[in-house]
Amino acid sequence: MKVTRGPAKIKLRAPWEIDLLRKANAIVAEVLLTLKEKIVPGITAWDLNRIAEEIALKRGARPAFKGYRGYPFSLCVSVNEEIVHGLPLKEKVLKEGDIVSFDFGTIYEGYYGDAALTVAVGEVSEEAQRLMEVTEKALYKAIEKARVGNRVGDISAAVQNYVEKKGFNVIRDFVGHGIGESLHEPPEVPNFGRRGKGPRLMAGMVIAIEPMVVTGSYEVEILPDGWTAITKDRGLAAHYEHSVVITPKGPEILSKI
Length: 257
Known about the structure:
Blueprint: H1 15-38, H2 45-58, E1 62-63, E2 75-79, E3 82-84, E4 99-108, E5 111-120, H3 126-144, H4 152-165, E6 169-170, E7 176-178, E8 185-189, E9 206-209, E10 212-214, E11 220-222, E12 229-231, E13 237-239, E14 242-247, E15 250-253
Antiparallel strand pairs: 1-4, 2-4, 3-12, 4-5, 6-10, 7-8, 7-9, 9-14, 10-13, 11-12, 14-15
Cofactor: Co(2+); Zn(2+); Mn(2+); Fe(2+)
Catalytic activity: Release of N-terminal amino acids, preferentially methionine, from peptides and arylamides
GO cellular component, one term: cytosol
């Protein structure tokens, strides 16, 4: 989600709504697991987009991204220095040594699912492998802070502190978000910030937490296609995301694979 500013009301979801969100996110998880299993050198991003769309439709859901703000595809496929919103084009052929991030969403009976992960294509560099591991670990450190009584800033600080301690940087132009009857709802969930700041977390809140981590500078450039966000210094990028509901007993990952 692109950073925006301004006050907005945060919705708390009823149990029946959370059940629909579970179903929407279960389909997302199935898609991402399938894509991960399909990754081999030579496969095209276009092929992966088709597979993702077919699974969603077969499960009675609609791809959430297709047509959203004009986005022309169902899946985002971001390779190496591409951070997010990479277009799944026929000419984007995955090769040995690439890292590729998949971001996918669904709409199921009016409720949204959204998640992302980064995978290796064959053998990758030690730096790339470490980047993926740190980004995924940062996601789970953030989820651990998604508890009643904490604040959004506790989630943000958990990501930033861990990532920077490991020698990487977090992207600041794009943030996590609330999710429910819309793909992007309040509150914004940045991957940087201070503990104790931001909206208070309450039971029934559903948020998409999505660290985007880079090996170099966090500065972003948008390609001429108007969608693909890349690192300005062409450093590698990784992206992991889960949709999470905050419950009285702690966070529940709705999109767990």
